Each structure stands twice: as structure tokens, then as C-alpha cells.
Amino acid sequence: DLLKALCSEEENVMSLKKCVSTIPIVLSLLFAFSFVGCVSSSDGTNVIIHVHDYSSIQQAIDNASVGATILVDAGTYHEHINIDKSISLVGEDRETTIIDGGDSQNVISITSNNVTIESLTITKSIIRPYDNGINVDRSRGIFVHNTTITGTYDGINGAYCSSSVFSRNIIANQTNGVMLVGSSNNLLSNN
């Protein structure tokens, strides 16, 4: 009986250790997602927009309401994108959904709070100062996740960017991976 009790107590200790070891992960996820809320349209429902219903990603963004999720089909899109409202831009697959900046300017410029960029490849601004993969200007609550950024000056450049999360991105072949200036309370994880 003593052996059974000791084995049972040891199993309880192991279970407790497993539980305690997951607490930092759970807290990190809660911290990360506390910055990124799901913004709803005025009638309380989320709006999903498919890029294939428009001539470009930019046109889909321009026609989206605040809080919309814009789904980008696999393919290569040759454009520069300006995001000036709270939206989510989500690619079908990081490997096959590509935004090509054509060797000039910022590929994606964000000037709004609460923007999500996810599952895209962003490439070819030009490798010179101030031409970036993703440029964030005076915004908070930005969430860039599972995105590949290549062939740009800065992969992600944030000026006065706060309360944002940049996680699980592949950033390669540029001068700087992530450059944050005058920024605070940001989480960079597994990039």
C-alpha cells in the first residue's frame, strides 16, 4: 500500500510539473493575443472579403469595412499596399501567397491600429533605406505572424509602434530583420 501511495504521489507531482511548465507558454499566448482583438463591423459580425472578388489586394482593402478579414488566394501580387484601417490581411499559404513590391518603396505600409498580417510572403522592395517589407508608422496593436519577408532593406520597420506582436516570421536577405525606433511594449518571438 505504501508503494502504491508513493507511486500515486509521484504521478501527481509529475502532472503538476507538466502543468506548471505550460504556464509560461499560456501566459505568452495570452499576452500576445491581448493586443490583437477581433474588431467587428457595426452590426456585430465579422466581414470576410476575398481578394479574388477585386482587381487587387489594395482595392479589397479600400472597399473593406473596419474589422474585416481579407483573404488572399495563393498567387503572386505585384503591388504596394497601404493599410489605413483596422483589418486582417491573411494569405492562403505563406509559401504560395506572395506580394512582390517590384524593387521599389515599402511593400506594405501600415498607418492604422489593430492590423493583422498573416501567412504571406513579402518580397522585393529595394534594398535602400526607408524601403521596407512592412513599414509600421505610429500604430499599435499590430500582429505580424507566420510571414516570410525577403529582399527588403528592413524586414519590419516600426516607428513609434507599440503594443504589437511579431512572431514566427522568417526574415532574410535584408540589411535589418526588425527595426523598431521610438517603440515600446512590443513582443518579438520566434522570428
Explain the overall architecture.
The longest helix has 33 residues, at 2-34. The chain is globular and about 35 Å long. Helix content is 21%, strand content 32%. The protein has a 7-stranded parallel sheet with strand order 1-2-5-8-11-14-17, covered by helices on one side. It has a 5-stranded parallel sheet with strand order 3-6-9-12-15, with no helix packed on it. It has a 5-stranded parallel sheet with strand order 4-7-10-13-16. The chain has 2 helices and 17 strands. The protein has 191 residues and is of the alpha/beta class. Helix 2 links the parallel strand 1 (48-50) and strand 2.
Q: Helices, strands, pairings?
A:
Layout (H helix, E strand, L loop, with lengths): L1 H33 L13 E3 L6 H7 L5 E4 L2 E4 L2 E3 L4 E4 L5 E4 L7 E3 L5 E3 L2 E3 L10 E4 L5 E3 L2 E3 L3 E6 L5 E3 L2 E3 L3 E6 L5 E3 L2
Parallel strand pairs: 1-2, 2-5, 3-6, 4-7, 5-8, 6-9, 7-10, 8-11, 9-12, 10-13, 11-14, 12-15, 13-16, 14-17
